[in-house]
Amino acid sequence: MEERRPGLDPAVAEVRLAVRRALTGLEPGATVLVALSGGADSLSLAAATAFEAPKLGLRAAAATVDHGLQDGSTDAAAAAAARAQALGLDARVVRVEVAGAGGPEAAAREARYAALLDAARVAGAAAILLGHTLDDQAETVLLGLARGAGATSLQGMAAASDLDGVRLLRPLLDVRRTTTRAACAAEGLDPWDDPQNADPRFARVRVRETVLPVLEAELGPGIAEALARTAAQLREDAEAFDEMIDETIEDIVEHAEAGISVSVAALAANPAALRNRIIRHVVASEFHQSLTRTQTIEVARLVTDWSGQGPIDLPGCRARRVGGRIEFTAR
Fold first, then answer.
1. What fold, for 257-330?
2. Mean pLDDT for each 10-residue chunk of the chain (331 residues)?
3. 37 belongs to an annotated ligand binding site
4. What would the DSSP string read from start to end of 201-212?
5. Please, how many CA atoms are within 13 Å of residue 95, restricted to the half-sphere of its CB?
6. Is there a binding annotation on residue 39?
7. CATH 3.30.465.60 domain range(s) in the chain
8. Second CATH level (architecture) for the domain 10-225
């Protein structure tokens, strides 16, 4: 357990330690960009980054994305940038147009990440720091479970990943939302409460305000932590599967005319979990499309339950059995 200086608030110490661990390993002299909404999570993250980054030889900046989806968003974004500047961070506001398929939440998320990536490139940042907490992770897992989206969705958010060559870091995935609020209070920071975070029209808000409290009341405390542990365990399993696929795929895949083919015997020799992942991996890597479980199982039946069935139409491609191979060709 790290020793804390006398008088240092425990919540502030916890957030700073999480940030320090996430930043350790970045090259001295690198720039990190905090995605700052102005809420308690990102504001406590910005404060901790402003404190920890210089100690590690890093430069720190902040970017606030104004989605323009509600009255007062411009003022809220400007206030967030001003708070970042008061903390000693270079700060800028990026305004975006939110449009696209998938609903307002998905469109806003896509626009936000694109804007943050552009801001990181302008700043020459090696990493973008995101303020997702353990509570956000628990909500993500529950939403994935409700959608029946499979193990990939239940892995939740990664603590570290890459987006077009820029590192995405989520230092606070083991930190509770109550801790970030306590850290802001201890440092005299006034976070902004986004009205959309209390709007029950959004599924995530209903999970946060209704579903998780009911689970805690009926099943006992610790539900959020248990969901976050589940995500971490599934991510470890997925990484192991990915390594197995990387080791296996070169031996069983061949290029075919307008596509790619996979050995039936090799697929049949693998357990169903690995076989299905190989099928999804082939389609994703070759045709940049994602298969549903139903589509994956239909392709797998060409291996395990072959009775002369014809080609299967899939997103972006078609699968068929030709002798001892499964061919995937562009449609």
1. 3.30.465
2. 68 98 96 96 98 97 83 84 95 79 70 91 96 96 81 85 93 97 96 85 92 94 94 88 82 85 94 91 90 93 94 95 94 84
3. yes
4. TSHHHHIIIIIH
5. 8
6. yes
7. 257-330
8. 3-Layer(aba) Sandwich (3.40)
Q: Is 261 annotated as a binding residue?
A: no
At residue 65's C-alpha, the angle toward residues 71 and 84, to 5°, is: 105
Copy the structure tokens of residue 141: 């897992």
User: What is the Rg, in whole angstroms, of the alpha carbon atoms belonging to the chain?
Assistant: 23
Both structure tokens of 241: 């599967």
Half-sphere exposure of 205 (CA within 13 A, CB side): 10
Closest to 299 measured CA to CA, from 246, 258, 262, 251: 262
What stretch(es) of the chain map to CATH 3.40.50.620?
10-225
Strand order in the sheet with 59-66: 90-95, 59-66, 31-35, 125-129, 166-169, 160-163
Tell me: is residue 41 an annotated ligand-binding position.
Answer: yes
Q: Which two three-digit tokens encode residue 289? A: 């499309």
pTM here?
A: 0.82
